[in-house]
């Protein structure tokens, strides 16, 4: 049932909540209704209030728990309380709360809290403080202890609830302060988190439910729970957790374990993520009895931990094998990708080299074709010049005083001679050389060795006599072309000759 909004009247508890509180605590219907109304509908706080100010009788506390009988339906539709709980309810007649007159006196401020909880919280605290001061003077200490428990429970309802870890930390701090340094190493976590820790370590969870107001608690904690034998065995074998049943987390666990008397110790296992109680001791027992029960539980149920450990190892082995297979698969994929990448790179490199080779060959062919075209054009020009020069020459003049014989040596080693008129220009000798078959060059100069003289462009207009070539002269050809056009000229001449022979045929 949700708590009422601060400052508004609390809704009356429903039958389901009343039946649940009756079944859990053993209270009768009127007591359950009263506690739920006082706790503003908070079930845990109502149960906490009940166990604080309605303890069981000494006979019930020390009686071993009996097998739980099936609960019979009640007129309100809930389940009948267990046998032990009926004894508690019978100890307090219907309509009479614990503490006699004090219980009736405390009903008025609780009723006020129920109707206007948020508005009068401070007034209630002041009233309870005054009542506690007066009660310490005139009432027995046991009655005042129960009254303070009721006040504490009411105060907790209005305050911010502690989470399980905070509850556990407070219990550990209080327990260590009360019983010294040699105490069990209780986890400062909620019991559900403690179960996870025990399950992860493949250990049983050792649970101690602490009831501070029980008359046997002090003796049990000092002589049994904190004895060296118990501390050593529990520390080596188990994960330990303890809780104060006045707190919600420990009270919830005590309800699940069906604890009816204190001190209470339990040993829990968690096979397959299910809670299994392998040992539970309630009431008075010695350190030897506790150790015997714990060892017997370990011997009888240790196979649960072994099976769980084997299953975990099998899962770990399967996970490791799967990871190795996945890693090998990924490595194989990476190797295949690397090989494919290398093949692709090699293919791309080969294609690039082939393209470069083709481009280079194409460029070389283009250069060669251009050179061949240039040489072919030069050879054709030479052929045409040779023909034109031969056609332009007049016949040789007869030998005589006015004639000049000119001998020319070509670069190919051939010698040629011709008569010219002494008054003929040197340019006529150039035209004669242009018409010779051995003239396979384009640019050249006629040179005389003795004395050394080059008949360049400025000397071409001189007459042979003026140039010192009459009555005879000996010249050689000095080629000035950048390239040897002889092969091209020969090829062009051969091509021309072949063309002429085909035409004659």
Automatic annotation (TrEMBL):
<feature type="region of interest" description="Disordered">
    <location>
        <begin position="55"/>
        <end position="92"/>
    </location>
</feature>
<protein>
    <recommendedName>
        <fullName>UBX domain-containing protein</fullName>
    </recommendedName>
</protein>
<dbReference type="Pfam" id="PF00789">
    <property type="entry name" value="UBX"/>
</dbReference>
<dbReference type="InterPro" id="IPR050730">
    <property type="entry name" value="UBX_domain-protein"/>
</dbReference>
<dbReference type="InterPro" id="IPR029071">
    <property type="entry name" value="Ubiquitin-like_domsf"/>
</dbReference>
<dbReference type="InterPro" id="IPR049483">
    <property type="entry name" value="FAF1_2-like_UAS"/>
</dbReference>
<dbReference type="InterPro" id="IPR001012">
    <property type="entry name" value="UBX_dom"/>
</dbReference>
<keyword id="KW-0175">Coiled coil</keyword>
<dbReference type="Pfam" id="PF14555">
    <property type="entry name" value="UBA_4"/>
</dbReference>
<dbReference type="GO" id="GO:0036503">
    <property type="term" value="P:ERAD pathway"/>
</dbReference>
<dbReference type="InterPro" id="IPR009060">
    <property type="entry name" value="UBA-like_sf"/>
</dbReference>
<dbReference type="InterPro" id="IPR036249">
    <property type="entry name" value="Thioredoxin-like_sf"/>
</dbReference>
<feature type="region of interest" description="Disordered">
    <location>
        <begin position="325"/>
        <end position="369"/>
    </location>
</feature>
<dbReference type="GO" id="GO:0043130">
    <property type="term" value="F:ubiquitin binding"/>
</dbReference>
<feature type="compositionally biased region" description="Low complexity">
    <location>
        <begin position="74"/>
        <end position="92"/>
    </location>
</feature>
<feature type="domain" description="UBX">
    <location>
        <begin position="399"/>
        <end position="477"/>
    </location>
</feature>
<keyword id="KW-0256">Endoplasmic reticulum</keyword>
<dbReference type="InterPro" id="IPR006577">
    <property type="entry name" value="UAS"/>
</dbReference>
<dbReference type="Pfam" id="PF21021">
    <property type="entry name" value="FAF1"/>
</dbReference>
<dbReference type="GO" id="GO:0005783">
    <property type="term" value="C:endoplasmic reticulum"/>
</dbReference>
